[in-house]
């Protein structure tokens, strides 16, 4: 006889800590002050590569799409202590949700567990949650890597977000072991209802779309322009070069 179980309605597992709830008005003011300040940095992350940059506490970073639909993988480290304090996607997911929305925060690892940055603007915020449970900017996936690619295809390859990020952070004395689970910006993902498997959809992001976040500490930031492009093709399949585009980074500093 098939076993039956008593039904219980879901309970949100974690009560929000006070530091997870920000003043929207204060964030908007900080954003405006940064945008009215100085453009401290501007760079292009070429397609299928990664770049790294630094931010001061209070800086605002805008990541935009100058040419076409493209997803990106973001890593964060405490600039003053990058070997020990870095972004913790799992705890960020537990505190906020699988997909970050404006005014959510990005949290650091143990034993620090404090906000590293605050997500303040999203040109795609109207996408919301679609009929399949898909949404944008997840902290559920990890990053594409050449190890899983070989398991799937049997082929050796060096050309993934993991390898791009690893190469980019070497100039700051970091290594492969310091690259960690990412914030997957512009990526549309979710979990299937029947099998609870991680799924992706073509990103709805288009040329001109952007996100912005404010640094809550001095940061080292790395961004990979994913070789999956808009993620309309399953990992393990060949992705045409024309599916991939560069990404633009701007850092604004309040006066």
From TrEMBL:
Residues 44-220 form the DUF1989 domain. InterPro entries: DUF1989. It comes from the Eukaryota. Pfam families: DUF1989. This is AGAP003239-PA-like protein. The lineage of its organism: Eukaryota, Metazoa, Ecdysozoa, Arthropoda, Hexapoda.
């Amino acid at each position: 006889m098939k076993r039956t179980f008593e039904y219980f309605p879901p309970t949100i597992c974690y009560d929000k800590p006070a530091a997870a709830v920000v003043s929207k008005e204060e964030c908007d003011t900080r954003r405006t002050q940064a945008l009215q300040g100085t453009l401290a940095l501007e760079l292009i992350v070429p397609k299928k590569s990664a770049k790294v940059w630094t931010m001061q506490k209070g800086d605002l970073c805008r990541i935009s799409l100058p040419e076409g639909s493209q997803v990106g993988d973001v890593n964060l480290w405490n600039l003053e202590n990058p070997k020990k304090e870095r972004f913790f996607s799992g705890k960020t997911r537990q505190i906020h949700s699988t997909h970050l929305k404006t005014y959510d925060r990005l949290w650091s690892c143990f034993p620090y567990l404090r906000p590293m940055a605050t997500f303040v603007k999203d040109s795609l915020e109207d996408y919301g949650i679609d009929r399949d449970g898909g949404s944008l900017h997840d902290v559920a996936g990890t990053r594409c890597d050449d190890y899983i690619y070989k398991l799937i295809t049997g082929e050796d390859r060096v050309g993934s977000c993991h390898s791009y990020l690893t190469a980019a952070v070497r100039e700051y004395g970091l290594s492969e072991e310091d690259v960690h689970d990412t914030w997957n910006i512009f990526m549309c993902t979710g979990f299937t209802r029947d099998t609870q498997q991680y799924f992706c959809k073509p990103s709805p992001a288009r040329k001109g779309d952007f996100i912005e976040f404010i640094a809550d500490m001095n940061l080292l930031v790395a961004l990979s322009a994913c070789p999956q492009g808009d993620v309309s093709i399953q990992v393990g399949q060949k992705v045409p070069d024309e599916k991939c585009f560069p990404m633009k980074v701007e850092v604004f500093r309040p006066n």
